[in-house]
Amino acid sequence: MLALGSAGTVATAAQAPAYPVLLKQSLTRAPSLTEQAAWSRAAYADAQQARAWLNPSIEVLSENLDAPASGGVSQRQDTWSITQPIEIGGRRAARIEAGDRAVDVAQARDRETRIRFAAQLAVLYATAEAMQARLALAQEDLKRAGDDLNASRALVKAGKEAALRTAQAQASVAAAEAAEAAARADLTEALEQLSALVGLDEPYSSVPDSLLTQSGPADAVHGQGEAPAVLTARAEREAAVARVRVEQKQRLPTLGVSAGVRRFAWSRDRGWVVGLSATIPLFDHNTSGIAAARERETAAESRLAAVRLEAQAARRSATAQAEATEKRLTAAAQGESAATDAYRLARIGYEAGKTSLVELLVIRRALYDAKLSTIDARLARIRALAALSQADGRLAFGD
Fold first, then answer.
1. Does residue 1 lie in a domain region?
2. Which residue segment(s) compose the domain that 135 sits in?
3. CA 367 to CA 376: how far, in whole Å?
4. Is residue 189 part of a domain?
5. Helix (H) or strand (E) holding 314
6. Residue-wise pLDDT tens digits, 226-255
7. DSSP string for residues in 179-206
8. 4 pLDDT exceeds 50?
């Protein structure tokens, strides 16, 4: 994250990188991804710790310290022993398996986070592109409004239009200026959100046209994979099953094997001592712990079923949206072409005195709306394809 932030302070003075470059950089540096990577490393460390053997204990025992001497000889005995706990009944194996399943969950979440991040990055990147296009459109419309105002002033001066037409044209210019200011504010917001997502302290100034106008992946509709959320839920279910086994093994006794040496004070001789100990599951059978683990397993199973249904519905919805946005974009492009021709002809007619100013303003507004509709359709298409990539378990536009 720090590397990206330091590198970004220079990049923010100019454009953001193209989307494929930014995606590649962000997958290793974005704060949300580095956070998840840390959780994955923690899970791996826990799994390694689960493989550790239990530590032995050392015991020093002195006996007969105040016992009366026998024939003037001390009856003291000193014993040094080491006890090694031994897990029986597969307790250690169950603990190791639970650690491994926790690693699987972390890896599944890491993959899900990366795919969700890529979809979010694609949407925010395309949104920034769309806001730039809207700003350019607003500036273009403002220029047209200024041209219409100049034309109306010339016609009023020539006595071919009433002075009211100039006021109408000025109002149109004011509306175009307000639209341009709003578009600039929307662009600033989009760039701020994009920069925050990738972990920059300062926002980018602009983005290149590298995503909004490109076509989707060839397998956008047909390349179905399993949803990351389903894989995560399945891994969580397996981890819950492993935890049940761990809790079941907890009620087994723990054995302790001891070995040591005993020193006799009266003869200074030594003898070996060995021992065997075991915990007695008299009061605690871990019944409630096992019941809680089983309930968590039931909850994980139910969540897996729910997530699977949600993923199926999400993919069907994303597929329908992707197909609909293609048709919407085609219709918007046709509408923009027709509106462009209409405004060109209306402008010629207005300058020739055959088209009224009111009609020209209406046609110019229709052209603005048509161009805006095309931009919105392109953005909607990117959102639909990003959602479809996420449902399929693919990095959005990562090819």
1. no
2. 17-63+74-392
3. 14
4. yes
5. helix 287-351
6. 899 999 999 999 999 999 999 999 889 889
7. HHHHHHHHHHHHHHHHHHHHT-SS--SB
8. no
The Cβ of residue 378 has, within 10 Å, a number of other Cβ atoms equal to 23
pTM exceeds 0.70 for this model: yes
Task: Give the pLDDT band of residue 224 (cuts 50, 70, 90).
Answer: low
Q: Say what the pLDDT of residue 13 is.
A: 45
How far is residue 190's CA from residue 196's CA, in Å, rounded to a whole number? Answer: 10
- List C-alpha distances in Å: 72 to 75, 95, 267: 9, 56, 12
Provide the CA 34 distance to its chain's centre, in angstroms: 11
Give, to the nearest 10 degrees, the angle between helix 163-198 and helix 357-392.
10
Residue with tokens 């229709």: 366
Question: How large is the greatest C-alpha to C-alpha distance in the chain, in angstroms?
Answer: 143
Question: Which neighbouring-strand residues pair with 262?
Answer: 79, 271
The CATH number of whichever domain residue 30 belongs to comes to 1.20.1600.10
**Is 25:17 a contact under the CB 8 Å cutoff?**
yes
First to last CA, the chain: 24
Looking at the structure of the chain, the number of domains it has is: 1
Contacts of 326 (CB under 8 A, 6+ apart): 381
